[in-house]
Structure of Shikimate dehydrogenase substrate binding N-terminal domain-containing protein:
Amino acid sequence: MDTYGLIGFPLKHSFSAGFFTEKFRKEGIEAEYLNFEIEDILEIRRVILFNQHLKGLNVTIPYKEKVIPFLNNISDEAEKIGAVNVIKVLRKPGDMYFYELTGYNTDYIGFRDSLLPLLKPGIDHKALILGTGGASKAVSQVLTDIDIEWSYVSRSSKNKAIKGRVMSYNDLSQEVMSTYNIIVNASPVGTFPDINSCPDIPYNYLTTGHILYDLVYNPEETLFLKKGKEIGASIKNGQEMLELQALAAWEIWNS
């Protein structure tokens, strides 16, 4: 039986396991999907060696960037983004110790294809990206490619490790909030069970012209989205993005 799985830590809220298990059941696919909760990226070697039927992995927090040195190959889009969320595993028949790992980024596809329907023609869109982890890199690349000006928002605007413009949360004045009409939460803040938390932005400056997009999908409506909804902003969670990126991952694993 073919095996697929997810590496990350912690894995209290895995969308992928439920999605693929249901897909396998509905389509009569003889396969299993397992969660591999690893406390150190070095454990990826153990996961691959001890699961000889493993054909593919999803990668989540905090390993989307840390996994790159363990890959044999990386796709052009993943290299450009600097983060990987899908790994294809190729093995040499008869040699349990030989494997080849190729990294891809399907977060890009999921975010792009779920964001585009929200954009209104004729409006000058600008975006703030809350958080600077692996998922934020796919978000910023999509925005760049569709010609939307963007800025990261970090706890420190002096974070030299981040490429591109960076603001701190203290920089989010009324003028800034009125200029940037798309707010993307690319951080895990607000994820179950921490449902009473939300990114520290000035919600009182939001308007009905804002779009709030939360990569978090559990809960379905985070406090971040609730606050935007109360003001009349357009809101979207990360469910569709996850489904789109998962389907793209399936195509990669089976190509």
